[in-house]
Amino acid sequence: MSRRLIAALAFILALTGFVAPVAAGEPVFAARACPADWPTDVRQTVCGTLTVDEARDGSSNRRIDIAVVILKASQPYRDASGQALPPVVMFHGGPGGALTPGVGGTLAALARMPDLLAVDQDVIFFDQRGGGADTPSMDCPGVELTDAGPPSDADRDGLIACLKGYEAQGVDLNQYNARVIADDVGDMAKALNLPKIDLRGGSYGPRIEAAVITHQPQIVRAAVMDSPWPPEGNWAVGTPEQVSAAVRLILSKCAAQADCAARHPNLQTRFEANARLWLAGPQTGKDGKTFNVDDLSAFLMDTTYDRTGVRRLPADLEKVIAGDLTPVAEIAADRTYYFEGQHMAHLCKEELPFESKARLAAGAAGDPVAEVLVPSLSRLFDVCAAVDIAGADPVENAPVVTDIPTLFVAAEIDPGCPPPLTEAAARTYSNSQVVIVTNATHGVINSSPCTVAMARDFLRDPSKPVDRSCLPATDTPLAFIEDASAS
To answer: For residue 313, is it within any domain?
Structure first.
């Protein structure tokens, strides 16, 4: 999210409105006015646009714009030698997320909690090419997509049509992926005159951090990875089993508590039986509304990612088993939270070429909860087969080998980025620290003052072990949420 020597350049540009002519291929940062409704008295803020080549191989002269927002540090920290910290660049997840549209809300939050962000070091937010406030921004209006894939054949077909539409506009979909974004980050550092930066991201953000570490290591001082997705992970293959494992873990935490176990006896076995009904055909709830296995798939994925959803899961599964499908309906009401074109450009380039439908189905076979995820995830392969995106070089799917100081923070309960994935990835980061937070869910660092301080202290001095004393004990019970309608 933001950084440092930018002030001089940004404010000179803002005052003069002048951008010198540049040769083709040279990155350019141009300051612009921030949105008028953003708070102006919280952090010194610079908004701008980074303009770079869409393709750096000379295959076209098309240029694209990347939205950038910089929050200046309120109390810049200096180490024992008097050296100021470099800016920290924030990486959003997804793929298909965004950061800059939410900076106004971040500033409002900082007015209430000034120590939350941009205290020690500047923070640079940017929207990874192809999404957010960028040009192009590859949204697919009317198409639904979750981490469990397109929830219907119509959504699959809509994604194909959307991607082909961007191709027809001249967008080279092969240029929207982690490898190319790593070079965007290098260009941003060059345009802003930043010799070093820190990296911080969550979910798919660490996938992009890994690419920066691989392809632009000379600019990276340290990295923080929250609920990380590493390059060697499989997007579709193995995900059904991970979701099933997350459900089993949550329900085992319920079974270990006498009150929860009494409310929900043998819930794992009963839900597996219910999942087989969904696999056999659509289910109609007490209110007459019908949902299918893809709807249950999206419910399981989204719920086991979510802090509140995890705590409600036993009660919600009781409802579903009893024919009250409102928990499924709540998720089905909003499944459009990605810039879907950007999302699929990444998956079709750097994820799915290394996987297959056959392996997806084989891994889930015999586990009814896992099998629920297979149909929607399978549609991702259909989308990629229909568009012109070549698979990435195999190095983009390999573990990263580095000695750059890196802090990995993972959630105990995470269906997409589980702890074993984090622990395996960290083995080739020779100067890394791994923290697994008990009872936490996807997106750990900002969920507690403990982990916020941990990330901040690490970036102050990446050579020191982080303080884990504030973390919950591994045997801490998970606090479940019940309601009057839960059995």
So the answer is: no
**Helices 293-305 + 374-385 axis angle, to 10:** 100
- Cβ contacts of 23 within 8 Å, gap of 6 or more: none
- Measure CA 144 to chain center: 17
Phi first, then psi: give them for residue 206, nearest 5 degrees: -60, -25
Read off the pTM: 0.92
Percent of the chain with pLDDT over 70: 94
Give the pLDDT confidence score for residue 484 in this predicted structure: 52
Name the token pair of 483: 């309601």
Residue 298 has pLDDT above 80, yes or no: yes
As a whole number of angstroms, the distance between CA 166 and CA 172 comes to: 8
Range of the domain at 127: 6-134+165-230+397-460
Question: Is the residue at 412 inside a domain?
Answer: yes
**Residue 106 forms part of a structural domain:** yes
Question: Domain with 435 in it: what CATH number?
Answer: 3.40.50.1820
What are residue 123's DSSP bridge partners?
Answer: 71, 88
Determine the 3-state secondary structure of 287 from DSSP. Answer: coil
Residue 479 CA, distance from chain mean position: 25
Specify the pLDDT at position 58.
Answer: 86
Distance between first and last Cα of the chain: 45
How far CA 439 is from CA of 64, 111, 161, 204, 317, in Å, comes to 42, 29, 41, 21, 19
Q: Over the stretch 40-94, which tens digit does the pLDDT of each residue have?
A: 999 999 999 999 999 999 888 999 999 999 999 999 999 888 999 999 999 999 9
User: How many structural domains compose the chain?
Assistant: 1
Euclidean distance between CA atoms 76 and 93, whole angstroms: 27
What are 485's two structure tokens? 């309608």
pLDDT 10s digits, 78-93: 988 899 999 999 999 9
What is the DSSP annotation of 424-454? HHHTTBTTEEEEEEEEEESS-GGGSHHHHHH
Q: At CA 448, angle to CA 443 and CA 449, rounded to 5?
A: 135
